[in-house]
Amino acid sequence: MEEDLEIKKILDKLPVEANALERAILCNTGTVQTLLSAIFRVPVEVEVIAQLEMNKNIYRWVKLVADFGEINKVTAALAMSIIPIELNDKDFLEGIRKKKFGIGQLLVQLKIRTQREILGFYIDEHIFSRVYRIFSNQDSTKKIDILITEVFPRVAFQRFFEVSSKTKDEIKSQV
To answer: Exposed, middle or buried: residue 76 (CB in 10 Å: 0-12, 13-18, 19+)?
Structure first.
């Protein structure tokens, strides 16, 4: 029942302009890298653009890139993360500092079970984005608390799904 309420809250926040693929990405609570790899049908790699420690936080900017070979790389997403040092597991922080893995990849590798709380969405003609929090389960001995903003360029997904501008009422009338 609690999950039903959470789904309802997310559906109420979703932008009506988002097409089905964009809604699936925005509502995803698994690793984004895996989902994007499935969509693009090639491995999506995380490239750390910048990372710095300041004011007891790690600030991290990355891009997720689908590599179709030497000629064609597609930036599928940009992400900015705020990782409070005092609220996160030392092994996780050590992995982040090495800049080798995406956050989701690292959590899976360390076998840290987490939850995601979607805080908000934004969409316009060029991008769709979301803000969410990743945190460890209450019974976990390894603490995780991260705030992430992800931005997805719509043009990167146009070949996979026609961008639709149908309103909620237009969709309902077709069902």
So the answer is: buried
**Among 72-81, 118-127, 151-160, whose mean pLDDT is lowest?**
151-160
CA distances from 79 to 12, 42, 63, 86, 165 (A): 24, 19, 6, 22, 25
The pLDDT score that the predictor gives to residue 11 is 77
**Cβ burial, residue 72 (10 Å; 0-12/13-18/19+):** exposed
Is residue 142 a contact partner of residue 89, using CB atoms and an 8 Å limit? yes
| Arithmetic mean of pLDDT, 28-37 | 91
- Indicate the DSSP class of residue 42: S
User: Nearest CA to 45 among 80, 81, 76, 82?
Assistant: 76
Q: Which fold has domain 2-160?
A: Chorismate lyase (3.40.1410)
Return the pLDDT at 168. 43
The C-alpha atoms of residue 64 and residue 48 are separated, in whole angstroms, by: 9
State the average pLDDT for the chain.
86
